[in-house]
Write a structure and sequence with these properties.
The chain is built from 4 helices and 9 strands, in the order βββββαβββααβα.
Length: 192
């Protein structure tokens, strides 16, 4: 099987009875949050094989859909996302903690999953650090990211000016907060 660009090989697929947590990024494009391949219109998504259009049996782990394999991608560690600090300096990058479920394919540095639900997300938007995890805030973020990140919608759980150390320090604060939530998602007060 061809190796994904971010890991040497896939391990066997497994069904996860409890969610697996990982991190990913989106870009604000055309007033939508867009992943690597398509826009996300809601904080939850079910994977689709880009070769067959099917949702059944996704993600494929035997190479039948080609490379890169289908599924919703997430990294084990937020800091492991290539270019995260550089992307964060570009307006419109959103980083988040996701809960992966259904069939999950494990790779060296992350996962591909059948289903994903966003637990928390944040961005350096303009001169502010914005992080949210309430269901209402996440729904608004995926419905209209520009309005939500600009403060025209539900209030985020954390809104603060970019630190005196600049965007790099603020990105480290964002990464730290998402990793704290990832270490104890029960602190959000909901399942996932």
């Amino acid at each position: 099987m061809p190796a994904p660009a971010w890991g040497p090989r896939a391990e066997a697929a497994y069904w996860s009875p409890s969610p697996v947590h990982g991190y990913r990024v989106w870009r604000v494009q055309s007033r939508a949050l867009t992943g690597a391949r398509r826009p996300w219109r809601a904080p939850a998504m079910t994977a689709v094989c880009l070769r067959t259009g099917a949702t059944a049996g996704v993600p494929h782990w035997n190479g039948e859909c080609g490379a890169p394999g289908c599924g919703i991608y997430a990294r084990r560690e937020l800091r492991g996302i290539r270019g995260l600090r550089a992307r964060a300096s570009v307006p419109g990058t959103v980083a988040g903690l996701v809960s992966l479920s259904g069939t999950v394919v494990e790779h060296e540095h992350g996962y591909r999953a059948e289903r994903s639900a966003v637990l928390a997300a944040g961005s350096l938007w303009g001169d502010r650090l914005v992080v949210g995890w309430s269901d209402a805030w996440l729904a608004a973020l995926f419905a209209d990211p520009v309005a939500t990140l600009s403060g025209r919608g539900p209030m985020a759980q954390i809104e603060a000016p970019v630190t005196a150390g600049g965007r790099g320090v603020s990105m480290a604060i964002l990464a730290d907060r998402l990793e704290e939530i990832g270490a104890d998602p029960s602190a959000l007060g909901r399942e996932g």
